[in-house]
Automatic annotation (TrEMBL):
Subcellular localization, as worded in the UniProt entry: Endomembrane system
Protein name: C-phycoerythrin class I subunit beta
Organism encoding this protein: uncultured Synechococcus sp
Record GO cellular component, one term: phycobilisome
Keywords: Bile pigment, Chromophore
Pfam family, one: Phycobilisome
Main location (coarse class): membrane
Superkingdom, taxonomy of origin: Bacteria
Family statement: Belongs to the phycobiliprotein family.
GO biological process entries: photosynthesis
Signal peptide: none
Amino acid sequence: VPAQSAARAVAIMKASATAHIGETNTPALGGTKFRKMETAQGDCSALVAEAASYFDRVISAIA
C-alpha cells in the first residue's frame, strides 16, 4: 500500500474518531450510517486532542 494512501486512511480514521469522541458527528454528516450512542456528558476536548495526537504520530511515521 502506498504511504500516501495509508496516511489518507489514517487521516479519515482520525476525523471519524475525534468526531465520535467530541460528539460532533451529526445525521447530516453520517447519512444512513449515523448512530448516536449514549455517552457521559462533559468536556472531552483534552481526550480529543490526545487521540488526534496519536493519529498524527502514525501519519508522520508513515510519511
